[in-house]
């Protein structure tokens, strides 16, 4: 996400008024498991996930029968370093927005369980776009 540093957050404040910041608080182990379970078929770009969308035969593309590969940035050691760097950079940004009273955090490990809470929260922040207003051009 953006901003990733307090300096970027301060620069963003000069450009526009931020009234809400959403933090998706997902345990690093969950993120690591999802990313390291991702494998791709390089020629087509097809993406498999060993937990959610596994290939029919482990390590083999369903369509071509060619080997799948794991991107370097999806390997466990790389993911761990990326998450540690993200945590170091993000904590001060979250604190910056928390101190301004703009931060709303949502914790969980599954999108379908977190999303209803985010959606309900956003409904309190956004005008009701589901009702048609003929006077307002779209």
From TrEMBL:
SUPFAM superfamilies: P-loop containing nucleoside triphosphate hydrolases (SSF52540). It comes from the Eukaryota. Residues 38-73 form the Adenylate kinase active site lid domain. The keyword Transferase applies. One of its GO terms (molecular function) is ATP binding. Transmembrane segments: none annotated. CDD domains: ADK. Keywords: Kinase, Nucleotide-binding, Transferase. HAMAP family: Adenylate_kinase_Adk. Belongs to the adenylate kinase family. This is KAD3 phosphotransferase.
């Amino acid at each position: 996400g953006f901003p990733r540093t307090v300096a970027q957050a301060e620069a963003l404040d000069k450009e526009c008024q931020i009234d809400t910041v959403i933090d998706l608080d997902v345990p690093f182990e969950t993120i690591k498991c999802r990313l390291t379970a991702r494998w791709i078929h390089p020629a087509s770009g097809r993406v498999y996930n060993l937990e959610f969308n596994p290939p029919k035969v482990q390590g083999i593309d369903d369509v071509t029968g060619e080997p799948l590969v794991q991107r370097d940035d999806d390997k466990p050691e790389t993911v761990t370093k990326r998450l540690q760097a993200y945590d170091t950079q993000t904590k001060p940004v979250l604190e910056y927005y928390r101190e301004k009273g703009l931060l709303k955090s949502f914790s969980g490990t599954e999108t379908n369980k977190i999303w209803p809470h985010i959606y309900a929260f956003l409904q309190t922040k956004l005008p009701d776009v589901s009702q048609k207003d003929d006077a307002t051009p779209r």
